[in-house]
Amino acid sequence: MxxxxxxxxxxxxxxxxxxxxxxxxHSHFDSEKRHNKIKHMGxxxxxxxxxxxxxxxxxxxxxxxxxxxxEDKTFNTAASMLAYTEFELSGEPLAxxxxxxxxxxxxxxxxxxTPFDFAAGIESYEYSEEAMYALNYxxxxxxxxxxxxxxxxxxxxxxxLGKRVLAMAEAVGFPADEVPQGMYPLxxxxxxxxxxxxxxxxxxxxxxxxxxxxxxxxxxxxVKTQVPAYxxxxxxxxxxxxxxxxxxxxVGGILLKEVMWSQDFLGGMHVAESDEEVExxxxxxxxxGKHKLGVSAADGFNGMMLTEQSIDKLAIxxxxxxxDGKQLGARISPQYDPAKGVVYFPHQVKVTETSKNDVxxxxxxxxxxxxxxxxxxxxxxxxxxxxxxxxxxxxxxxNQNPAFHAVFDGAxxxxxxxxxxxxxxxxxxxxxDAFSLAQNLSNLTFKNLAALHFDAKAGTLVDxxxxxxxxxxxxxxxxxxxxxALQIFQRAQDALPxxxxxxxxxxxxxxxxxxxxxxxxxxxxxxxxxxxxxxKNGLVHxxxxxxxxxxxxxxxxxxxxxxxxxxxxxLATSDAKYRSAARExxxxxxxxxxxxxxxxxxxxxxxxxSPWTQAAISGALRSAMLNLRNEGAEKAPELELAQLxxxxxxxxxxxxxxxxxxxxxxxxxxxxxxxxAGHDTDEDGVPQVTAAGGxxxxxxxxxxxxxxxEK
Length: 711
What we know:
Shape: globular
Oligomer: single chain
């Protein structure tokens, strides 16, 4: 893919230079890991005793054997952010659901308490978080927040954005002088970019500390670390260039990352004086002079920034990207009816970027590809549904987290108008507040999924729609992941838990009309996968042309996506046939593709992996561990928890650490800059950003394509 030439981008110098903390071994904004707060995922009868099996497996090996050759470093926003969302869910939440006490994890103690716990609870989780910051705060690959719709409404200047950031910092009790310098917060990102740095990175040592570390190779030593300038000043971390295309799937991908972390960061409150996390007893607790929003000051500030960026995306979608087939900016209303005129988000929109406030702004927009794509639809529906639940202010939802209510009660984020808190769909209005935007856009996206992509006669979602004509091809990956998006949409509509708790039953079920419609689609799509896409060998085909034969290929990513989707169908409907089908497909996939010499799944001795592949594998492995593993009389070796955790370690270490994760940040994933040492100080195979290739280094993100083979 062609990447545009680098542009000159000044940093976001909002405040005076921030002092580095004495011990700077934390994430952005000096964020510390939070423990013992993640809700169970999946079955409620989960017991800590299952961890015994995970420990047993971890002790018998799981060494990585794969060889990874990166063929394309291009950062694909949609694919990578989907993968990183699956990595997040397969990180701390998975490890804790399997019984791990997160307090025992230490990023500087590799493979403790077990290789699985460390790979999931530290590496998978932290790579996911840091990649989001690389794109959202450092890359410069999109229009700057200062030129977005929210700040424009405030006056449109850097000073206006500065005041806003100060207000958000105050709401969570975060010291304003600790906001990193050189931030470049995006309103929304472009579809793809070159993640190599455009200039020399400022590695000047600023501070240091004494640590005792244990590396991935088992080496234990006391070291003196250095904290480089780029850790707290992102000015030199801009990327080399992007395609300047707006793509709904890419917008959805980063929106999904933002809202998943925002729910995590803002899901509780903390004592202002001690920074101790507490459960929110009421939505006004932050007004008592003792408590602040967010589970900690640092995490709360991240939640503020990410939510601000999310709202900008929704405002741009609603105000500028609606397409009626002729022009952009078509009106989107809560009473939208596709039968009276279709409005949707086109597949590709070219941005002619202009400079305002010395940073990027959206100039001219031109539709390059005016089709509606299923991948765009489900990749928007999932995060829009998460954001709907996060910002939900419906009076009927008596089970909303008080901490979330406090975020959207007027300060720091606007509350929804009273009519949008009611249940009369005819009275809903379009608005610029978080919940009104999510309400309006999720409604449009769901209705378009059904109207533009669902072939009622065949009983399946098809890939594309353009100019009134529905396509006739079904791609298994997208049909399967549509089940995931529909499951989350239904849960959000019916006030069931989403986010990390999307497998729980919840205490309330509103059984809304749209929620029930989503469940009908889930059943029909899942049944189509089983009846039409599954081959005689027990594996699914990559796709199907309606009225014709299935596609010849049976890729690894199609199998794992189908496992993920069928598990979502089981969780949505409680129909055991979908669980049985997912189990059968996992067993068939593992038998057909797992290569012991490579420690991962390959069609033969080598295969091509992309972030789509990594997303599906991560999601399917988590589904298997939480929902498909053997119970009672079930004895399949492929679905024993011990084997699943061993597969997880060998796959992750071999393919992710083995090359697809091109670099890692300093701190929470165990990497440190050590005086007199090299650029992979935790010896896990993933270099620091300054040693990750390219003239000046590469951001901590995933490669676009790699060939994985036996070593």
